[in-house]
UniProtKB/TrEMBL annotation:
Family to which the UniProt record says this protein belongs: Belongs to the 3-hydroxybenzoate 6-hydroxylase family.
Native species: Linum tenue
UniProt-listed Pfam families: FAD_binding_3
Signal peptide as annotated in the record: none
Name of the molecule in the record: FAD-binding domain-containing protein
Lineage: Eukaryota, Viridiplantae, Streptophyta, Embryophyta, Tracheophyta
Length: 319
């Protein structure tokens, strides 16, 4: 879906399809599934690290890029704190309309009255929707019951018939929920994001609330920037004799990781801060914040998603 006069588009891509597309570009055997990292430690002297997986496997590596999600073991090893709760809960789902959903290529958004919700098409037959709110103590258990979650969401959508239709069409096994957490943006001001040949990317680096719809996009930005920084580090002094030691190569990669961390520091700060503020303002039902949202910040909030997304992370390779 495009926005007239802006030169920007919003596309909703199902995560499963994106992952499958990236997997097809990798050599067979590159991905090892069901291999959760339990802990890690340094292996004696030098650059080596030991990764302990939950199946008992131990992997030794000299360079490590942690993409292990919001509960990242690698981020903790670097020195980053655990993500903190936003006290909000999000429900997401996909509805399939075999004969076509009939919705235009538009993002439908509903904010205020204590919740934030919306839906948009993935294709002609599939609609993605979301709903977030701050649950009461009694409502927190809803996250474990898809049937009650769906019923609760439907009960809040009296003034949003289009979204209510989409949620009503969603099968229970396509309803997911999760508490929303984020990394304190102040960590990006004073903490190191790379350490001894180790760095993090994706949710391991910048867990954020989903109010900008940029979580997956941010991870792709990370990957492009990271690939470029490592390539530049390895290409420097490319005329160096082929007998360069492993230690010298690791040192150059470490410099590349440090450059990557520097490039992504303030972008990550921007993501997390903007997402948190946008979610709080749009979900609020307080008198003052409602006035500010609807009368003062309406245009700003409407364009925030596009403004954040309009970022050039550079090309993957440099020559």
């Amino acid at each position: 879906m495009s926005f007239a006069g802006t030169g920007h588009e919003i596309r909703c891509v199902q995560r499963k399809l994106l992952l499958e597309a990236m997997e097809r570009e990798l050599p067979n055997g590159s991905i090892r599934y069901s291999s959760k990292v339990v802990t890690m430690e340094e292996s004696g002297s030098g650059y080596s690290k030991l990764l302990y997986l939950d199946d008992g496997t131990i992997i030794k590596t000299k360079v490590l890029i942690g993409c292990d999600g919001v509960n990242s073991v690698v981020a903790k090893w670097i020195g980053l704190n655990e993500a903190v709760t936003s006290c909000r809960l999000a429900v997401r789902g996909t509805a399939t309309f075999p004969e076509g959903h009939g919705f235009a290529s538009k993002l439908f958004m509903f904010a205020g009255n204590g919740f934030r919700a919306g839906c948009l098409p993935c294709n002609d037959k599939t609609m993605y929707w979301f709903f977030s709110w701050t649950p009461s103590i009694q409502e927190k258990d809803l996250q474990y019951n898809p049937s009650k979650l769906k019923e609760y969401v439907l009960s809040k959508l009296h003034n949003a018939p289009n979204l209510k239709k989409v949620v009503g069409k969603t099968e229970l096994d396509c309803v997911m929920s999760s508490p929303l957490r984020y990394r304190s943006p102040w960590e990006f001001v004073w903490k190191s994001l790379a350490k001894g040949g180790v760095c993090v990317a994706g949710d391991a680096l910048h867990p954020m609330t989903p109010d900008l719809g940029q979580g997956g996009c941010a991870a792709l930005e990370d990957s492009v920037t990271l690939g470029r920084c490592i390539a530049e580090a390895l290409n420097k002094n490319s005329t160096v004799e082929n007998n360069e030691t492993d230690e010298e190569e690791c040192r150059r990669i470490e410099l590349g990781l440090s450059k990557y961390a520097k490039e992504r520091r303030w972008r990550s700060f921007q993501f997390i801060t903007a997402a948190y503020l946008a979610g709080r303002l749009q979900q609020s039902q307080g008198t003052i914040t409602t006035f500010l949202r609807d009368r003062v910040l309406a245009n700003f909030l409407a364009g925030l998603l596009l403004k954040i997304a309009a970022f050039d992370c550079g090309k993957l390779t440099s020559k």
